[in-house]
Write a structure and sequence with these properties.
By secondary structure, the protein is of the alpha/beta class. It has a six-stranded mixed beta sheet. Helix 7 links the parallel strand 6 and strand 7. The longest helix is centred in the C-terminal third of the chain and has 35 residues. The chain is globular.
């Protein structure tokens, strides 16, 4: 099966990892304003079957969102549009999902940004935002799909790759679990934190950090190699970290947002009515995913409470410390790749649009200073 690799690196997005207080309310109001009924004339729809993949199982909230996207495509089309859905990497590996869509081997995929960062390195900026999964996804949808200026930048990059961004869902929200009660950054000082992400950010906040995989986290906690782990309710519960570290500090900051793609030629072959079905299905799947996550979060809280653990929530001031440092660190990490392929100006345009939308007190000069 032929796979296409791009000879040039493409830079898509500086979508930052941050939503300030006030922006959360703004996005919620905008999302509510979009809830008007959309009428789809089933008679106008063509019959079509899509092959869709996700690297995640459907017991995972992100894999569940991909599944629900497939379910809603069939439901909204009255069964005229069908989806042959393959979760859990059963059709192709997690590093191949987007390549399969790009070369037409499959039609749709949910793809974790880290799996295609070699080709589109800055999409990993998307979605780590104050306000949790809903705010993160509303912001990402605005930045990548709705705002004319920044959406044009995104579409140019993805369409050059041969794919169409048709939806965005959320990654889990983040937090910490510890052997002792923790309430904020001050309580984390002097403890060894195990994490698979945000290593430089945590270090810049003064923490001792050991990079570690999810599969090694439980054993590392039990052996005392690390004192606490960076993980949200759903991850803590699924991997039973609370058995060793029954004290949770929830950040309510989403780990990221996850794109759903369609092959560009396939997208262009669809009627406007069929395109509307696909994009609406992804939006409705997000609602189901948020509810799914809420259920997992409550299961974790119940389990921790039952064994006498503690559940605390990070203050807004501490959240802002985190997201601001993420923003600065990501610019340092990813801008050079954009500049190297002549996309520095577009990168800055998107970054500044995000800063304005989020109400961040960060200037372009301050971002540039990170490169020194």
């Amino acid at each position: 099966m032929k796979k296409r690799f791009l000879s040039m690196m493409m830079v898509t997005i500086l979508a930052l990892s941050v939503v300030m207080m006030g922006s959360v309310t703004c996005f919620a109001e905008e999302a509510a304003a979009e809830e008007a009924e959309i009428s789809i004339n089933i008679d106008e729809l063509e019959e079509v079957t899509f092959i869709m993949t996700s690297p995640l199982p459907t017991v995972n909230m992100m894999g569940y969102a991909a599944q629900q996207t497939a379910v809603y495509i069939e439901e909204l089309s009255g069964g005229k549009m069908k989806v042959d859905f393959h979760p859990g990497g059963e059709l192709c590996s997690e590093t191949e999902d987007l390549q399969y869509v790009a070369d037409g081997s499959t039609d749709m995929c949910q793809c974790m940004p880290t799996y295609f960062k070699e080709y589109i390195p800055t999409f990993n900026y998307a979605g780590n935002q104050l306000g949790g999964s809903r705010a993160a996804t509303d912001f990402s949808r605005w930045l990548y799909m709705e705002n004319e200026e920044t959406a044009a930048i995104v579409n140019e990059e993805f369409e050059a790759y041969g794919v169409k961004l048709i939806g965005i869902v959320s990654a889990p929200e983040n937090g910490f679990c510890s052997k002792k009660e923790i309430k904020g950054w001050d309580d984390l000082q002097g403890l060894m934190l195990g994490t698979g992400a945000f290593v430089s950010t945590f270090q810049a906040l003064g923490l001792d950090v050991q990079q570690i995989t999810v599969t090694d986290t439980y054993e590392s906690l039990s052996r005392g190699v690390i004192d606490l782990a960076s993980a949200g309710f759903a991850t803590i519960y699924a991997n039973k970290y609370y058995e060793i570290c029954p004290n949770i500090l929830e950040m309510n900051v989403a780990n990221g947002t996850i794109p759903i793609f369609m092959n560009l030629d396939k997208w262009n072959s669809l009627s406007p009515a069929a395109q509307e079905v696909v994009t609406l299905a992804a939006k409705k799947a997000l609602d189901d995913e948020i509810a799914f996550q809420a259920g997992q979060n409550q299961q974790c809280i119940d389990a921790v409470t039952e064994i006498g653990g503690t559940v605390n929530y990070m203050t807004d001031a501490d959240k802002i410390k985190f997201v601001r440092q993420v923003y600065l660190g990501n610019y340092k990490d990813y801008y050079p790749s954009a500049e190297a392929i002549g996309r520095g100006e577009q990168f800055d345009t998107l970054a500044l649009a995000a800063i304005e939308k989020l109400g961040l007190d960060i200037t372009l000069d301050e971002l540039k200073a990170q490169l020194n």
